[in-house]
Amino acid sequence: MSKQFPKEFLWGGAVAANQVEGAYLTDGKGLSTSDLQPQGVFGPVQERVEGDFGIKDVAIDFYHRYPEDMKLFAEMGFTVLRTSIAWTRIFPEGDELHPNEAGLAFYDRLFDEMAKYGITPLVTLSHYEMPYGIVKKHGGWGSRDTIGFFENYARTVFTRYKDKVKYWLTFNEINMSLHAPFTGVGLPEGSSKQAIYQAIHHQLVASAKAVKACHEIIPDGKIGNMLLGGMLYPLTCKPADMMETLQQNRDWLFFGDVQVRGAYPAYMKRFFKDRGMEINITAEDKIALKETVDFISFSYYMTGCVTTDAEQNIKARANILNMVPNPHLKSSEWGWQIDPEGLRFLMNELYDRYQKPLFIVENGLGARDKVEADGSINDDYRIEYINDHLVQVHEAIEDGVEVMGYTSWGPIDLVSASKAEFSKRYGYIYVDRDDQGNGTLERRRKKSFFWYADVIKTHGASLKA
Q1: Which of 43, 56, 59, 165 would bridge 22 by S-S if both were Cys, CB 3.0 to 4.6 A apart?
Q2: Helix (H, G, I), strand (E, B) or coil at 354
Q3: Catalytically annotated residue among 21, 151, 244, 362
Q4: What is the CATH number of domain 10-457?
Q5: CA 172, CA 291: separation in Å to the nearest integer?
Q6: Tens-digit pLDDT profile for residues 66-122
Q7: pLDDT tens per residue across span 182-218
C-alpha cells in the first residue's frame, strides 16, 4: 500500500532560538534563563560574568547564517519550519513597556527569508527560555505579574508579524516544568510541588491569554499548545500497574486537558487534596482558561513503562523523564528507547481524547555522526528511525487521525537541550563544531538530507514499510 500523505500535509523541521541562534547579547538581547544553563537543562544555573563562554553563545550562528540555512531547507523541499522567538530579543529584561526594535527587526528578516522560499513559519513564543530579569526581579512564573509580562510580549509579536506568521505555539513542552522547574517556570531546583504547580497555573493562564490575543489580532491565524509526549505503558497487566500507569500519564495529559478543554480536570482536585496542596485559582483565571487552543502539537521521542513492583522499578534517566525500560525495545546510544509504533498509539490517544488536529513538531534521533574521508556522512540509522516513525504517522492518518504536519527535530545540527553538546547530532545538515566550540561552522549535507528531500517530494510514497 502506498504511504502517500495528504497533499496539504506540511513537511519540515524544528529548531529553537537558544539552540541555534547564538549572538547571545547582540542587538540589545537580554540574558535568558537558557544563557544561565551553559551545561544544558540538567546542568547547574550559573551567573554570567564578562568574558566567560557558553556553547550556546554562538551555537550554530543561525542569527547571521539563516539565509544559507533557509536555502538548504528549501532544497529539501520544506513547506514549514518550526522556530521560536527569543523573548529576550524583544523584551531584554521581560518587564519593559516597550520592545527592542532591533530584535523585532531580526525576526522580520527571518520570516521574510522563509517567505522567499514558500516556507510556512510555525513559531513558538517561549521555548525553554524566559528573560532572566523576570526570574531575578519577580520570581519567574511564581509571580502572577509574569502573566501580564508574557501577554504583553505575545501581543507585541502577534501585532508585528500578523501578516507573516499564521501558526503559533505558546510554551514548548509545557509539562516539562515538573521535571526541570528552572527551565520551565524559572523556579530553583528543589522548589516545592506546591510552588511549581502554582507557577504552572500562572503559565496556563498566560497561555490562554495568548490564545485569546492571537484570535483577536490574527483572525486567520491558528495557535496550539505543545506537549512533551511522554506516553507510558504498564510493565505488566496487573491492575495495580494499570492504575499507576493511568495516574502517571495524567501527570502530563493534565496540561493538554486544561489547554484544550478549558478547565482543570476533576482528577486534579484529588491530586492536590491528597498532597495537601492549595492552588490559588481565581474566578478571573477560570474565565481566562476557557479560551482554548486550535490544535495540539507535541514532541515524541520515546515511550517508557510503569510498574508498582519495587524490584523491577529500576528507572533509566532518559530525555528529562525517569522511565522504566521496555524489555521489548532497543535503545539509542543515549539510552532513549526506540518505539515507532508508540507514535501511532500516542496520536490515536490524543485524537480520541481531544478531537482536534495534531501537529508532530519534534521527533528525531540524536547520534554521533562520522565524517568519512571523502566528506560524506552516511547516517543510515537516522534514515531508518525517521522512516519507521513516518510510516506510523501514515498509519495514524489511515486510522482517522487529523494531522497537520511533521517537523523533525533538528533538521540542522544544533546544541542539544539536555546537556548542551554538539556530539549528539540530529540534523540532515552537518555543522562543523564540537563540544568545546571548535570548528568552522561549515554546513554539509548528510545522506539523510537527500533521503528526506525525496520523502517530501513524493509526499511519503518513497517510505519503506
Answers
A1: 59
A2: helix
A3: 362
A4: 3.20.20.80
A5: 18
A6: 999 999 999 999 999 999 999 999 999 999 999 999 999 999 999 999 999 999 999
A7: 999 999 989 999 999 999 999 999 999 999 999 999 9
Residue 131: partners with Cβ closer than 8 Å, 6 or more residues away: 30, 31, 32, 33, 87, 88, 91, 92, 93, 94, 95, 149
Is 372 in the active site? no
With the CA atoms of 344, 350, 353 and 356 taken in that order, what torsion angle do they form, in degrees rounded to the nearest 10? -110
The pLDDT of residue 319:
46
Between CA 460 and CA 465, with CA 463 as vertex, the angle to 5 degrees is 130
Taking the CB of residue 9, how many other CB atoms lie within 10 A of it?
19
Q: Which of 141, 205, 139 minimizes the C-alpha distance to 170?
A: 205
SS3 13: strand
Cell of residue 83, nine digits:
522556530
C-alpha to C-alpha distance for 208 and 187, rounded to whole angstroms: 21
**Domain boundaries, given as residue ranges, for the chain:** 10-457
Sign of the four-CA dihedral 189, 192, 198, 204: positive
